[in-house]
Amino acid sequence: MSHTGSRTAPEPRYGASPLAGREAELRVLRDGVVASAAGHPSLVHLTGESGIGKTSLIQALTGTRFGVPVLVGSACGAPLERDFSFGVVRRLFADLLARTDEPTRVALLELAGPPARLVLDEASPDIRRTSTYTTHHALFRLIAKLAERSALLLAVDDAHAADAPSMRFLAYAAHRLTGHPVTVLLSTTDGERPYAEEPLLALTGQAREVRLAPLSGEAVAEVVHRSTGREDTEVVAACTEVTRGNPFLLTELLRVLRHSGTPLDALGAVEVRRLGSPAVAARLRARFRACPDTEALAHAVAVLGDGAEFDIAADLAGLEPARAARALDTLAAMSVVANSHPLRFTHSFVRTTVLDSVPVGARLTAHGRAARLLHAAHAPSEQVAAHLLRSGSSTAPWACEELRGAAKLAAGRGAPDIAATYLRHALKQPSAPCERSAMLCDLGTAELSYAPHDGIRHLRTALDTATDARQAAQAALKLVPALCMVSAHEEASRIADTAIADLGDEDPDLAWRLEATAMMPEFLRLPTVPTALARMERMERPVLGDLALRRAQQGTVATMAAWRGVEREKVVRCTREAILSADHNFFRPPSYYTLFALARTDASAAIDEVFAVGDRIAEGSGWPRAMAIMAMAHGLKAVHEGDLHEAARRFAAALASFEDYGLDIRGDHCAMTCAIWFADVLVTLGRPDRARALLAHHLRGADDVPEMLEYTALLCTRGRLLLAEGDARGAVDALEECGRRAAAWQMRNPAILPWRSLAAAAHTELGQRERARELAEQDLALALTWGTDRVVGVAQHALAMALGGDEGRELLTTAITRLAASPHRLGHAGALLDLAALQAESGGDEARATVEEAIALASACGAEPLVRRGEQLLAQVGGGRRRGRRGSAPLGLTPQEHQIALAAAGGATNRQIAQDLCVTVRNVEFHLSSAYRKLGVKRQGLGPLLLTGGAPESPDAQQLVGAGSR
Which residue among 7, 524, 628, 810 sits deepest, i.e. has the most Cβ atoms within 10 Å of its Cβ? Predict the structure, then answer.
């Protein structure tokens, strides 16, 4: 290859050049050739690991326009040609002389002398081409004569594989280049043994080294995009990770991906990490051929995986330590494995390739031997178990123990699916009946985290195969709460009672745990609540067990204290203690009830502290149910702080997690509670239709209210819904029934179930002030016992409205002071509106200021019904209607049309609006079409009409856009 043109070549364009990420190196080499053309000869050694892109860079350089005349000669060392004397030199001069005419070529060879013609003549027998001083001097004279015509670039790729005579000549010539416009460029690969070591060392010792580094992340992204059309950051990161920026490996990886059968638009990081390459395997075999031990050791390290110990890898490879050490040094020099300990492959793509190249039978055998070696070396159980899983069936006596140990470790770090995989394999091993029952119990417990029905099935089997009362009790402890999740309460009670009777006095602490577990199915059903409460009193005795057991008891005590509305400080203290040593089992009933109890204390510092711990435990467990429970807790906290949109988002996320968990929500009391709380928030947001639809979808029907714990809260929410819809009589019926059931469960705390204040409001609306006053006074007495400003202020507000007159107005003012000191902005806004209505009877100025304050609070909370009521009051007192506020519906829009149109005007997509409002996209499209028709505009016209011209952007629109982006 040669080029004598004088035009300066354009700089390579990033994205167009096949050398993505090598522009800087190409520029350095090009500038060196141009400098040598000015009489400054250079010797450059280009080096790096195999596949790093040396050949591509040389090819790009030799095809470059340098702006000055340059004759280019290029050659490549090859193992199969290294015994041919002067083979590389002949190829170099063939290029250099190819651009000269025949007379000039003859003249140059005459000047060089017969030894040069002897080397370069194609017809000369190879045996006479000897490396002598005369020959070297003749060939150098030819270089000097050619350099008088133009600058020279002599590029030798893979110089480590070049023949010895050629390398000796280049070493000879390198010492005599002074004053000649000549650049000699050599490339070598790390770890390759030089064929002509002495002359190569002489050359590289005086050369300027250019070491190629891996491609940057940006360059990898460019190559991936050019090959696949994808810009997915996860795919790019995975490609970078497995190839470490090696261009050859990256190219092969992308080629394999293109032919993997997976559509390019469906490529993911998982597919990238699991692939190997036959082409890479072939290249490795060729490199290993010179040292067979390297292949055996590479196979062993690939089987063992990253972090392999040298002695175990050597044993697995069947190599003596000395031979294994030499093989390891060679692999490290080749950059196949890292030059560090423990052993690991430099590129995980190469490790996958090597492992894939091992035949399946040999691979199974190797994994079995690896498991035995690691077990003998007392390696971690998960490391041994990983090889047992890959070795087919193993009947070693220690295999079951290692698999169980690995399962315990996996479960402890929040990987229940992996733990279950180990346990299923362990169950295939020979084991004693007691061990088998224990493994079934562990398997069922792990599966409860992601496949609850399978977990229940295995726990039932564990209970049936238990060999003693203690083992049966352990299985019952896990099975009973699981059965409660699927509403199998009678079976759960029967199992718990049998386990308690069989255990007797054998283990008091275990018996206490069983009592706590047995309480759950009884406590969830109204007819058996007395039995549960009696059991609960027995549980309050001091336990003899460890600290974790005492903290579990503290959690139960905290929950019941909160329900009864007593000892708020004790609830905070006990909840903190309950979570200190908690693990993922904390999210099985009744432990997690403490989170909901704490949220009602308004102790913000303790709530933030405990919820942060709960978040870490839930995320570490990987259990959808645990994450759903934490979302519920955060939603409840948001309700109490008056952030209704955040509460709705949290409850919606929790319901989605419950559905992902695979249980029927109607059979899970915790999931149903979430749906009820969500509906309650929707009512307060002004979406009663959506609340009613949610309850109808997730619960058993509009009129069917079973006597179950969670349905007590449903009656309270139904009362709020009916009151919002104007059905005070229906609200009274639902709320009074709620109160009857709450009494049986000892749920007296108005912070837990505010049925009395709601019922008092309904009775007041019906003119039944005596009953309203009775309920409100009871609520206030209980609220004062609990003691938070929020719950006391709400109770005072309810009593003030029942009393009426000057006495009621005075108490209402007191309630507003209480609520203003609490985080309950929503209750504060409602009380202000009632005060404004009273003020409006005597004058407008004072009432107008109160309404303005109430509307601001209600708008911040997202309570549309309160905003609408406030704007009506504002109009009555002469303040005019506040345009652009949430709830105002100009130009004939319904409130829902206005809300959706505002969100669309604020930039939210239809899908974002649907997610935030918990409706379908079709529903959003329907209301938007109606809004377009009424307003006479399209989507782009909503903003100017609704958000400008004196109509400030609605807070609701801003919140919807924010919720969509979240």
Answer: 628
pLDDT average, residue stretch 380-388: 92
Q: Is the pLDDT of residue 647 over 70?
A: yes
Contacts 24+ apart (CB under 8 A), 638-642: 639/677, 639/680, 639/681, 640/599, 640/600, 640/602, 640/790, 640/823, 640/824, 641/823, 641/824, 641/825, 642/823, 642/824, 642/825, 642/826, 642/857, 642/860, 642/861
- When pLDDT is averaged across residues 830-854 and rounded to a whole number, the result is 86
CA dist., res. 711 & res. 709, Å (int): 5
The neighbour count for residue 58, using CB atoms within 10 Å, is 23
Q: Characterize 500-530 residue by residue with b for buried, 16 or more Cβ atoms within 10 angstroms of its Cβ, and e for exposed.
A: bebbeeebeebbbbbbbbbbbbbbbbbebbe
> Regarding predicted confidence, which is higher, 942 or 71?
71
Q: Are 457 and 482 in contact (CB under 8 A)?
A: no
Tell me the residue type at 201.
L
Structure tokens belonging to residue 479: 């099975």
Check for a shared fold between 23-211 and 892-965.
no
Sheet of 208-211, strand order: 70-76, 151-157, 182-189, 42-48, 208-211
> What's the pLDDT at 839?
87
Query: Domain spans of the chain?
Result: 23-211, 217-275, 432-524, 546-619, 892-965
Residue 185 in 3-state DSSP? strand
What's residue 951's pLDDT?
Answer: 35
Q: What confidence category does residue 906 fall into, taking pLDDT thresholds of 50, 70 and 90?
A: confident
* CB neighbour list of residue 762: distance below 8 Å, 6 or more residues apart: 719, 723, 728, 729, 731, 732, 735
Least Cα distance to 639 among 740, 548, 713 occurs for 713
Rounded to whole angstroms, the Cα distance separating 455 from 111 reads 91
Confidence at residue 792, expressed as pLDDT on a 0 to 100 scale: 95
pLDDT at 502 (0 to 100): 93
The pair phi, psi for residue 7, each rounded to 5°, is -75, 140
**Residue in 478, 452, 480, 475 with CA at minimum distance from that of residue 464:** 475
CATH, domain range 892-965: 1.10.10
State the DSSP string of 549-587.
Answer: HHHHHHHHHHHHHHHHT--HHHHHHHHHHHHHT--GGGG
Are 402 and 373 contacting, i.e. CB atoms less than 8 angstroms apart? no
Alpha-carbon distance of 219 to 236, in angstroms, equals 10
Residues sharing a CB contact under 8 Å with residue 856, sequence separation 6 or more, in sequence order: none
Burial class (CB in 10 A: 0-12, 13-18, 19+), 499: buried
Beta bridge partners of 66: 8
pLDDT digits (tens, 9 = 90+) for 332-371: 888 888 888 899 988 888 888 888 888 888 999 999 999 9
Average pLDDT over every residue of 384-392: 89
* Residue range 311-337, pLDDT digits in tens: 999 999 999 999 999 999 999 888 888
Q: Would you say domain 23-211 falls under CATH 3.40.50.720? A: no
Residue keyed to tokens 């806004």 = 829
pLDDT confidence bin for 807, thresholds 50/70/90: very high
Question: How many CA atoms lie less than 13 Å away from 158 in the CB half-sphere?
Answer: 18
Whether this model's pTM surpasses 0.90 = no
Instruction: Look at domain 432-524 and name its CATH class.
Output: mainly alpha
819 vs 601: CA distance, rounded Å = 14
